[in-house]
Amino acid sequence: MILVTGGAGFIGANFALDWLRERDEAVLNLDKLTYAGNLENLATLKSDARHTFVRGDIGDGALIAALLAQHRPRAVVNFAAESHVDRSILGPGEFVQTNIVGTFALLEGVRAYFAGLSDAERAAFRFLHVSTDEVYGSLDADDPPFAEANQYQPNSPYSASKAASDHLVRAYHHTYGIPVLTTNCSNNYGPYQFPEKLIPLIIHNALAGKPLPIYGDGSNVRDWLYVGDHCAAIRRVLEGGRPGETYNVGGWNEMRNLDVVHTVCDLLDELSPRPAGSYREQIAFVTDRPGHDRRYAIDASKIERELGWRPAETFASGIAKTVRWYLDNADWVAHVTSGAYRQWTDANYGARA
Ligand code: NAD
Ligand code: TYD
Q: Best mutation site among 29, 67, 79 for ligand 1, i.e. most ligand atoms within 8 A of its Cβ?
């Protein structure tokens, strides 16, 4: 079996669902259920005996030790994190706590567990750490995309905390011999993404008749990858990645934010039209994010060369699936956009011009 942390969040839940569809190997799912964790994401696994959910914190050393001793996983896949840049700007403390201190506690638990494994179990064991391209900092328009050897230059409390966790993971390989793997992926989109991130926020606000907030002039560039492709890449790295290596994962799909928002508006115009006019009319340019990284782009040629992974979805196919999913799952959106979410919206957008 494998231990998945953060498996009630956006990517972790997609990973658990895909894993149990693709593989016949049990998943122990450890998640703290912060605002971003949602058991509804895992509802279809309710009667699947291969899935065990435990509510808990990766920073709880005693819990980690007990879970590893009881379930004896052959791999750990670490998704658990605070993941939203704007939240890290308004309150960085939780990011340091979960992303750095929490990852450290998880690694300490794994170190003790690993020491008690047989030689054969040790050789097969993997710790896969799911990270982000944001650790590399920001690119200018004509810079080459991020390669694995790029310098770490994180600019937000979120990316700095992820960078720190990546360094700890690396150190546990070099110092203690833990067979670690790290993936650094670009922006994901797809089903079950909390509507604080750009794409689900735009879909949610559009349908609610609210403004579609674009930070700055909308010319910041991100690389976008469909979440199912990210999950497939993680499975590939877990299977064939070389311990101690890092793999960049991306969609070969750089886009300006404004173009992403236009694409979403155009799809909604087609699938769920307003009584009159286009959703584009709801676009509102707002004060920029402090320290807003200009551009992220990923060179994903190493994972293709070594492990044969390439994204299966284009942006056109992935975004169409995604918009349809949100239209078909209005209940899910209604449940996650609770009172607490509305307070967050007031704090983040209330102060912007
Ligand atoms: P998310 O915020 O949707 O989910 C995070 C999950 O972790 C939630 O279920 C939350 O309850 C859980 N969690 C938070 N703190 C925890 C703790 N201390 N102990 C246990 N569980 C805890 O995030 P996501 O978008 O699914 O991202 C998952 C991982 O992938 C993160 O590590 C993130 O840095 C990384 N990543 C995300 C993206 C992206 O575009 N979303 C891109 C690249 C990498
Ligand atoms: P986001 O989804 O928060 O991901 P990240 O900051 O990790 O890349 O944001 C994606 C891009 O969209 C980023 O350049 C910031 C921008 N953005 C907006 O313009 N408006 C918004 O309301 C949000 C949430 C993001």
A: 79
Which ligand has the nearest atom to the CA of 212? Answer: 2
For β-strands 221-226 and 254-256, DSSP reports them as: antiparallel
What's the CA-to-centroid distance between 215 and ligand 2, angstroms?
Answer: 8
Helices (H), the chain: 10-22, 61-71, 85-90, 93-95, 103-115, 119-124, 157-176, 198-207, 227-240, 257-271, 301-307, 315-328, 330-336, 339-349
**Encoding tokens for residue 3?**
């231990």
What tens digit of pLDDT does each residue of 180-228 get?
999 999 999 999 999 999 999 999 999 999 999 999 999 999 999 999 9
Domain 2-189+224-253+295-313 is found in CATH 3.40.50.720: yes
DSSP annotation of 216: T
* pLDDT exceeds 70 at position 284: yes
User: How many Cα neighbours within 13 Å face the side chain of 240?
Assistant: 11
Count of residues in the chain = 353
Identify which ligand lies nearest to the alpha carbon of 169: 1
- Output the pLDDT for position 339: 72
Domain ranges of the chain: 2-189+224-253+295-313
